[in-house]
Amino acid sequence: MRIASFNINGIKARLPRLLEWLEETRPTVACLQEIKTMDDGFPAEEFEKIGYQAIWHGQKSFNGVAILADGVKPIEVKRGLGIDGPKDGEGEQARYIEAEVNGVRICNLYLPNGNPHPGPKFDYKLAWMELLRDRMRTIWDEEVPAVVLGDYNVIPEDKDVWSPKAMAGDALMQPESRNAYQRMLSDGWTDAIETLNPRGGVWTYWDYQAGAWQRDHGFRIDHLLLSPELADRMIAAGVDKECRGREKASDHTPVWVEISD
Known about the structure:
EC number: 3.1.11.2
Domain Endonuclease/exonuclease/phosphatase: 4-252
CATH topology: Deoxyribonuclease I, Chain A
Number of strands: 14
Site (Important for catalytic activity): 222
Family: Belongs to the DNA repair enzymes AP/ExoA family.
CATH superfamily: Endonuclease/exonuclease/phosphatase
Low-confidence stretches: none
Number of domains: 1
Keywords: Hydrolase, Magnesium, Manganese, Metal-binding
Largest sheet: 6 strands, mixed
CATH class: Alpha Beta
Distance between the termini: 6 Å
Structural class: alpha+beta
């Protein structure tokens, strides 16, 4: 069973690349972030043509998450964490959706970026991370095989970025962001990519600006955290780096974990 995460950065703009990747790699579950479409604009029929069923949580022009499953319908468990955006009256942003697929709890998230730092957006990021940790504790108590995956917008350590100095002022690398992420790991969750690549140097994101892709100036912000019940079944984990170099690609590339049935 292969479970993947892909910040697609606009599902309509990247649909050909997304369908291409799905057919090439055929993940059992594909979690998408930044679909950037309202619910009625989600192209579910395009995925059905190649055998995938989906659930999604959309938002106009921003955010949005979806879970696709090969040959089965994801059974929705929860959407949203119950926190409003950083602006008064903004309401909750479409950043979280949770489902059961083939006996595995799939928790798909798009964590707030938090820039500019400091400020209300950074405060929102930290508050969101605390609510996520609370949700993860609830799932932990259920003792189900689970993966909490997506775009965390956190660079966990200096080894996860091409230049710590270049990113030092960014919300993704602030001590508060890193500490919040590490607290999740200290609760007993396993970072799949880190576990199999302890020396670092694995990137999942390259900016569109300043030739970042061509110069390999990237960093790791897309993570897969496994519960003990799932970590024991991990066979492999990796990054589909080549997808970033294709025409009209997302600025992220897919990450995945393979587990035994």
